[in-house]
Design goal:
This protein is an alpha/beta fold. It is built from 15 helices and twelve strands.
Amino acid sequence: MSEKKFVYADHAATTAVTESVMKAMEPYFRDNWGNPSSLHTPGRKAAAAVRDAKKTIADTLNCRETEIYFTSGGTEAINWALKGNARANRHRGRHIVSTEIEHHAVLNSIAALKSERYEATLVKPCCGDGLICPDEFERAVRPDTIQMICMLANNEIGTIEPVKELARIAHRHKADFFCDAVQAMGNIPIDLDRLGVDMLSISGHKIGAPKGIGLLYIKTGCMVSRYIDGGAQERGQRAGTENVAYIVGLAQAIKDAASASKDKAGLKQKRDRLASELHKIPFSQINGTMEQRLAGNLNMSFEFCESESLLLLLDLAGICVSAGSACTAAKDEPSHVLKAIGLPEKTIRSSIRFSLGDENTDDDIEYIISQMHKITAQIRALSPEYGKLTS
């Protein structure tokens, strides 16, 4: 355990492209490189690959092929869904209901819509567990509510939200429901027919596909305005030549991720071992519920240890983790998710997120445990506040 090793425990931020995805994509970089809109043989081969990818995804997620639209990733899918749906339904109302723990792609899209005279109500999670209470969600509805939003699983604390019930609430009030499933895909099974949402986003790089590819599911009958003007690609809804290789890779990644999501018992066991041992460190706490949570997610605070110091020293030890969402890593702002569940800023600024993947081994877990005990002690040895408390 004294030897430095490399442990990647930041799967919520991104994942490596898998061998099966790389193998599926390779022919479309070199051999079958035609434009899917062209009528000649190479073009028809490329178009067939896109159609096959949609069929694979539709079969895996239990929806229609015509309900799948490819995007550049989760952020584009979210922007398209929220803005396109709001604009297409503005004749019915201009009120949106969402939650305080959504990804910034959701929160900033809502902020942008406010400049177009839309209004929004953000619901707080119940207590400190990060769960959205259906009753509170429904109480936020107004006669002019047209859109309701909640993520399937939180990217920072891993909370699995009661989306099926929340979608039913939206439909009871004649509102459309959007679900961000970027963190959930590959971690829990997703059946779109059973889930009952109207729109849903997935990002490829979270599940072993490359960065720069994702999708937006739009249920038949749900009104969403065109996102990018130009050609007639994506049935006239999103112009631009399709990224065939990445689309093929996304289909393979979704197929693989859906299979992997069926059994997370081993991953949960490793996460629970990590949580149990790190909780033995004095002045530590687990953030969010441990019951309704993604199997690989663990968000913890270590008082008297700044998150940045923990990250840097863990990195020097070869361990990759994060202090929250990778999308806000450059901002010196406390996590809005941890703030929403009621944590004080001092606790938030001592928090880090471990997001384990199926490839993490028992040895990885033991190495993290060993290094965390050493690193927290090292940081606290330099803290006058900790020194006064323990002297």
